[in-house]
Specification:
Layout (H helix, E strand, L loop, with lengths): L11 H8 L16 H4 L23 E5 L9 H5 L10 H14 L2 E8 L4 E12 L2 H4 L1 E10 L8 H15 L2 E6 L6 H5 L18
Length: 208
């Protein structure tokens, strides 16, 4: 508990204010990164085909593609992530703390698609930028946590997110972009120009 010293002669209002708990940060619509990075992508460089045609500016009826914001905690963001992997139990304080860390670093581009008809997140993917000393201090893009909610599969949102993050990595001057996937998903990612690396992906987990 926080102890507050109140001096003699303080007004009743000041005394009450001093005894109130410190306000916590509330979720809001502040984006993790500049939305213009998505809006200003040169979609003419996209190599994937879409039928019907969709784009970052027009992902479909009632859908909006944008950066993650903390208010998405209450829009089902973790429900969607849970369809990909174990999301765990995350408190609002943990979520906001991690969000702010990612936002301050400037190297995390968590992108979501919201169905504005129901106010829910229906798809998400993340581009992480790694800074290297190799390749003349180049940057490498890494795609992670690509998932579309069950009810929105078949609407090309996975393709749209992949194409968008590929173009975004180019705009951010990455020398390459990589991802990890299950063997059954290799054919899907090859559509975007990815190839199977000769290197083996290895992992050592300390907890789930």
């Amino acid at each position: 508990m926080q102890v507050v010293e109140i001096s003699r002669g303080s007004s009743p209002a000041a005394t009450i204010a001093a005894m109130m708990p410190v306000a916590t940060v509330m979720p809001d619509d502040t984006p993790m990164f500049d939305p213009n990075l998505l809006h200003e992508l040169d979609w003419s460089q996209n190599t994937a085909t879409f039928s019907p045609a969709i784009s970052p500016l027009d992902p479909g009826d009632g859908l909006v593609m944008r950066p993650l914001c903390t208010a998405d905690l209450n829009r089902g963001f973790f429900k969607v992530l849970g369809q990909l992997t174990a999301a765990g139990v995350v408190s609002p304080e943990q979520f906001i703390k991690t969000f702010e860390h990612m936002k301050r670093s400037g190297d995390y581009y968590v992108t979501v698609v919201e169905d504005t008809n129901v106010g829910q997140i229906v798809a998400t993917a993340t581009l992480v930028i790694e800074h290297k000393f190799t390749h003349s201090c180049a940057k490498r893009g890494r795609v992670e946590d690509v998932v579309v909610s069950d009810e929105c599969r078949g609407k090309q949102l996975g393709k749209l997110l992949m194409s968008t993050l590929m173009l975004l990595s180019k705009r951010l001057n990455c020398y390459k972009i990589t991802l990890e996937c299950l063997p059954k998903n290799v054919a899907f990612y090859k559509k975007f120009g990815y190839s199977v690396s000769e290197e083996n992906y290895m992992v050592q987990k300390f907890f789930n």
